Amino acid sequence: MSSLQLALLCIVLAPLAQCQVDINVAMMGQIYSNLDRSSSPCANLWAHSCGNWSGNYMDNFERAEASYAKAMALVLSGTHDKEGENATHLLQQIRDYFASCVISDQELQLPHELISGHLEWTNAAGRLRKYGVNGVFLDESVDVAYNDSRRYVIQLKMPAQNDHLPMATLSPELQQLDRELRELCRKYRREEPTLQSWTLGELKQQIPQIDWKNYFEALLEVEPKDDQLRVEVSDVGYLRELGTLLQNRSTTSLQLYLTIRLTSFARKANPNTGLWSRVHSCIQHMRAVLPLGMNYIYDRYVYRTRSEDTRQLMEIFTSLRRTFNKYLDYNHMELSPQELDYVRAKLAGVHLKLGNLPDATTSGDFYDSHYASANFSRSDFQHNFWQALRLRTRLQHAPLLQHGAVLQPELYYLNDDVLSARNAPYFEHERNTLTVPLIFMQWPFYDYRLHSVFQYSLMGFILGHELMHGFEQDGILFDATGNESELGLQLRQQPRFQAALKCVQKTPTASLKERLADVNGLQLAYDAFFGIGHDSQRFEYRPYDFERELLAPQLFHLNFAQFFCGRLPLAIDHDMDDVRVNVAESNLKQFSTDFNCQQQAPFTGCEMWRPST
Ligand SMILES: *[C@@H]1O[C@H](CO)[C@@H](O)[C@H](O)[C@H]1NC(C)=O
Ligand SMILES: *[C@@H]1O[C@H](CO)[C@@H](O)[C@H](O)[C@H]1NC(C)=O
Ligand SMILES: *[C@@H]1O[C@H](CO)[C@@H](O)[C@H](O)[C@H]1NC(C)=O
Ligand SMILES: *[C@@H]1O[C@H](CO)[C@@H](O)[C@H](O)[C@H]1NC(C)=O
Ligand SMILES: *[C@@H]1O[C@H](CO)[C@@H](O)[C@H](O)[C@H]1NC(C)=O
Ligand SMILES: *[C@@H]1O[C@H](CO)[C@@H](O)[C@H](O)[C@H]1NC(C)=O
Ligand SMILES: [Zn+2]
Which residue intervals define the domain Peptidase M13 C-terminal in the entry (predicted)? Predict the structure, then answer.
């Protein structure tokens, strides 16, 4: 075993006191082992930083997933509990689910209720939705009202683009149906569709082509009253035509269509697929479908450094916030006083959350009873799988049926329809909240013992990226309380704002908002660490005791870039990782100075919020 491997093992497994090696020395070892010195940082920072990436993993996330799964597997396969533990029922439920998952190796059967019986399309679509299958003909989800982030509503819209059948194996009749559905989507797809806010009663009047009573009865298992549900509907034209299109379809072709959709969903959701061991796949699957239970157990039994991490994360975050406030003092965007107040209030209101768990709930009872309606067996994975999906849908929809349907922030956690759990931090506009998943709080991303240059260049950048999502072209529409705001819309029309959107698109991007978050987030993290207007040439750097060759700014860039190391290509909804690194750095004025690059031309990068000094 190499000394680097030994050092890493030591760091991952033992407290520092028992280790011979300093964690920062180990970090440097890792940084050097990824470097490809044959390519120039000035020409391609990503290639320079990651060219010798030799991990057995696809990327850093896969590495974090592997150690998460290992730790959780130990807890979930255990049988003995310590005296006086809380939430023992929940732990038992999760252990049963895990046990059944690990031994199962079958294709998933479809639940009897879903493929048999009375077939009328709204009823069938409602039943599928009840089992977590979304986007069959239409997309239904529980969200909060656009103008009141505390009020639960149902959102209805056309399905996402990619949710169509593979054409090859279909009968002509099915191909015809699929073609018509695609055609319909194409016809009505809009960049920003208009939103209608209606009661259920109004929905029935406005879109009578669809039998909503049937749909919601099948989904919710009760008939909601006409004034009980508030619905927000996009794509009204689509839904009207959809109703007409499906009205007179033959039962057999509908049945076949639904079975194909359901089978493809089951295949995607089944943890059997992929390169990983069954244990690993089961843990990842359970993180996605049972987030509350898995996060609670990880927090309770595995995660050991919450208090140090919280303190440090808050420190980094506070420093980012302070830096952004200083940007606003310069007011590069030329905002009116009212607009400035809006941005400052939003910034002050951002809530940082460590772990996707309710804020205020420390009582084991809450966790113990949260999944009470589920009955998992130790041997029947089929049964557990569909129950877990149903449970998730039921928990999403339960508050809608209560009086007032008001979100309780202290009990809120994210429980949406994902099939693979989030690893990276995320920002929720409606709650003005930045959540860092617990899986992210570990090597190679983070360790509270690491030097601040490592923390600011990775965690600082990630938090900066997420924070800046609150201020890009979509995020800016939401105010400090998470309501959509006229003022935000007005702000977005400001010439300087529009110019910044244009500026970062000088080279094409797969996602404008991701690019803005990258560019602005890197500037923010750099300024938070080095100070606004920093100029490396004016400093005589004292070498770190763990590193004699690379200077602080160079370490900063390399560690930032190495967050994105891995085997290309990997991008979904983002640009490729090499593009992300290189574009973000090319918009950071100090980058070329920090690496003594030959500067041919004056800096032409984009600075949106950052003062031009
Ligand atoms: C890449 O890493 C290996 C060890 O993993 C090392 O022997 C080699 O010198 C490195 N190559 C470069 C170009 O740095
Ligand atoms: C939000 O909008 C709906 C309909 O547009 C309206 O009925 C409701 O009163 C509004 N709520 C708030 C808090 O303004
Ligand atoms: C914004 O949302 C809050 C709840 O988060 C609500 O009480 C308030 O009425 C909304 N404000 C406006 C202007 O609609
Ligand atoms: C559907 O069938 C009914 C009667 O069975 C008929 O009145 C109606 O026009 C048909 N609609 C379409 C869109 O074909
Ligand atoms: C169990 O929960 C109670 C509150 O419900 C709390 O006071 C106690 O510390 C918890 N025990 C453990 C071991 O977490
Ligand atoms: C729980 O599920 C098992 C099948 O896995 C079943 O035998 C048992 O009756 C169920 N219990 C309840 C209370 O639903
Ligand atoms: Zn992002």
Answer: 426-602
